[in-house]
């Protein structure tokens, strides 16, 4: 993973900051010593690790995240999981929904329980580190993206005086019903950025109409270019182009496009 120093003075969207948040999301897959080392290199003096282990029959093994505290910025990154470990339970429509943050709509039960398991730790770390009016950021890839979005929602709707400065997600699945997406979109205008890489399979789950995506899409096309919208007609052609890029295994494109490395590569290209 390429090392970088995060500009802790940032308060607005930029591709460079998106790349920093992507690297922070990628770091969530590493072990604690690697996270501690990167934190120092990135200019953060404090680190808290969050980890909860589940027992069967819950479909996930654990939830992991970390929080970095700096002089001007706090970043919490949630770890994701492999598509094969998510597909069955994300497609299960028999699981009852979980009430959304602050009573706003409903969210997927699996995401809710995963976030609930570490939220007290995350919440405590954010408040412990926020001793200088620091900005607050959430990020994550895959499952971690869903948890990052929901963490931002919990902080805002349950503590309205503290709204995250930004939420950046990569390959995030659908997380909630239409009511919460509407409330979230209104609260997080120019704060939420949901990156989707071409044919990434995970953002297509769980199924509609029960679950929906929040707005603020940043679509990465088959050439690696970032768009703020995805036009219907050109988007269909671009999806097809991605599927045919690997003629020997076209269905693998949806999994290949989900890899965190693919998102980072695209963001690096867009720096130029």
TrEMBL record:
SUPFAM superfamilies: alpha/beta-Hydrolases
Lineage: superkingdom: Bacteria
GO MF, one annotated term: hydrolase activity
Sequence ranges assigned to domain Fungal lipase-type in this UniProt record: 75-208
UniProt KW keywords: Hydrolase
EC number in record: 3.1.1.-
Alphabetical list of CDD domains matching this protein: Lipase_3
Family annotation (InterPro entries): AB_hydrolase_fold (IPR029058), Fungal_lipase-type (IPR002921), OBL-like (IPR044819)
Gene3D superfamilies: alpha/beta hydrolase
Keyword Cell cycle carried by entry: no
Top-level EC class as recorded in UniProt: hydrolase
A Pfam family that the UniProt record links to this protein: Lipase_3
Protein's recorded name: Lipase family protein
Organism listed in the record: Streptomyces bugieae
């Amino acid at each position: 993973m390429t090392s970088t120093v995060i500009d802790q003075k940032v308060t607005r969207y930029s591709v460079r900051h998106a790349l920093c948040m992507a690297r922070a999301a990628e770091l969530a897959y590493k072990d604690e010593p690697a996270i501690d080392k990167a934190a120092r290199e990135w200019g953060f003096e404090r680190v808290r690790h969050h980890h909860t282990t589940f027992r069967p029959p819950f479909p996930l093994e654990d939830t992991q995240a970390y929080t970095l505290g700096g002089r001007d910025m706090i970043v919490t990154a949630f770890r994701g999981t492999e598509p094969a470990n998510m597909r069955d339970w994300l497609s299960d429509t028999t699981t009852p929904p979980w009430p959304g943050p602050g009573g706003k709509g409903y969210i997927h039960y699996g995401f809710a329980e995963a976030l609930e398991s570490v939220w007290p730790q995350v919440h405590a770390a954010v408040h412990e580190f926020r001793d200088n009016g620091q900005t607050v950021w959430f990020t994550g890839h895959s499952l971690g993206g869903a948890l990052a979005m929901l963490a931002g929602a919990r902080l805002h709707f349950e503590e309205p005086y503290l709204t995250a400065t930004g939420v950046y997600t990569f390959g995030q699945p659908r997380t909630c019903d239409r009511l919460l997406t509407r409330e979230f979109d209104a609260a997080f205008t120019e704060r939420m950025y949901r990156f989707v890489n071409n044919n990434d399979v995970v953002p297509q789950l769980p199924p509609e109409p029960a679950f929906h995506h929040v707005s603020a899409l940043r679509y990465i096309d088959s050439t690696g270019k970032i768009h703020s919208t995805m036009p219907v007609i050109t988007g269909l052609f671009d999806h097809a182009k991605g599927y045919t890029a690997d003629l020997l295994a076209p269905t693998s494109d949806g999994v290949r496009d989900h890899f965190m490395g693919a998102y980072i590569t695209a963001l690096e290209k867009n720096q130029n």
